[in-house]
Design goal:
The longest helix has 6 residues. The chain has two helices and 27 strands.
Length: 346
């Protein structure tokens, strides 16, 4: 596999963005959505911040208050019974669950795809009771002259997917919730197929511990139905624990190509390729026998959540795929994969 990591990686780091306030720190600039707009490459960065914590006996949890329109900080004692602090991303405290950071989106712009200028203010920020724990992992799909953005909203009510749109990457219109909890990793196809819009989704079934990819249809991008199971974890392969959509699918001569992510039983997150039928994307034609990108570089192995590469966007360019991805839930990195290698991985 002739995967070429950008020598300038990571192309965006937490230190590139100032914190929201003096008692906060930026811990992640990662999992960006990507598209081309005019003569620029646009990234919609997930920016994760948390309170600076001088108290080793407590965890400080940031929570958006929709009534006051401010971020509040909750203290959770490490001596709290029935609590679990093992995952750096999540705190299980008695009968409650909290995230250790809060995320929102900022735009980064580049002429060369490597050196980025980051807009100084957030463009999508928590704004209601469904977003109190933050916004995560956007994907951008251009349909005609509009850019549609799916993103994850998290709150004590669950993990849902919302939809927004823009035509200038300065003004954004929220269109509402398009999934019930728990559903994330939703990507829209860039055109109608036989009169319907399609989306890959990732509902979670706690009873059976399933984290599989599904596909759904819509007449208008807002109301989704005719759901079908698309792909599950393969117990005999590299994607043996969880699978989910990554980048927005794009057309090739052989079908729709989807760069997807998967976790194995060691909780290593890698990327692979999935080929879907051009006229019926609910039909899987092939998938990678081995990852096309797996954690190897230091910045992929060590970070906020190490041993992870995770993509929310890629660009097809001159028979190669340019993948922008989150590395260790901390950095944004870039890699190039020959399109032929994706097909050879099947």
């Amino acid at each position: 596999m002739a995967t070429l990591r950008c020598p300038e990686n990571p192309v965006i780091r937490p230190k590139d963005i100032p914190p929201l306030r003096t008692d906060f720190e930026v811990i992640g600039t990662f999992n960006p959505a990507v598209t081309r707009f005019n003569d620029e490459i646009i990234l919609l960065l997930r920016v994760a911040q948390r309170p600076i914590n001088p108290h080793p006996d407590f965890e400080l949890v940031p929570i958006y208050n929709a009534q006051s329109n401010e971020i509040e900080i909750k203290e959770i004692s490490r001596d709290c019974p029935d609590s679990n602090f093992d995952d750096p991303r999540i705190i299980y405290a008695a009968n409650e669950v909290f995230l250790t950071s809060i995320s929102y989106f900022q735009v980064a712009r580049s002429k060369d795809g490597i050196n980025f200028d980051i807009d100084t203010s957030e463009v999508l920020f928590p704004a209601n009771n469904y977003e109190t724990f933050g916004l995560e992992d956007a994907r951008i799909t251009r349909i005609d002259n509009e850019y549609y953005i799916t993103y994850v909203a998290v709150s004590p009510m669950g993990v849902i997917t919302c939809l927004a749109k823009t035509n200038d990457f300065k003004n954004f219109e929220r269109l509402g919730i398009i999934s019930c909890p728990d559903n994330k990793d939703v990507v829209l196809f860039p055109e109608k197929i036989k009169g319907s819009y399609y989306a890959i989704t990732r509902p979670v079934t706690p009873l059976f511990s399933k984290h599989d990819m599904w596909i759904a249809k819509s007449p208008d991008l807002l109301f989704w139905g005719q759901h079908k199971h698309l792909l599950g974890a393969d117990q005999k392969s590299w994607d043996n624990l969880k699978v989910g959509a990554g980048a927005v699918p794009f057309k090739t001569d052989q079908g729709w190509l989807e760069i997807y992510h998967a976790a194995d039983k060691e909780n290593c997150y890698s990327l692979g390729a999935l080929l879907l039928d051009i006229n019926d994307p609910s039909r899987v034609l092939a998938k990678s026998k081995k990852p096309i990108l797996k954690p190897q570089a230091d910045y992929e192995l060590e970070g906020f959540f190490g041993n992870a590469v995770f993509s929310c966007g890629c660009l097809e360019e001159k028979e190669k795929i340019i993948i922008y991805y989150g590395a260790a839930d901390k950095y944004t990195a870039r890699a190039e994969v020959p399109l032929k290698d994706c097909f050879d991985s099947f």
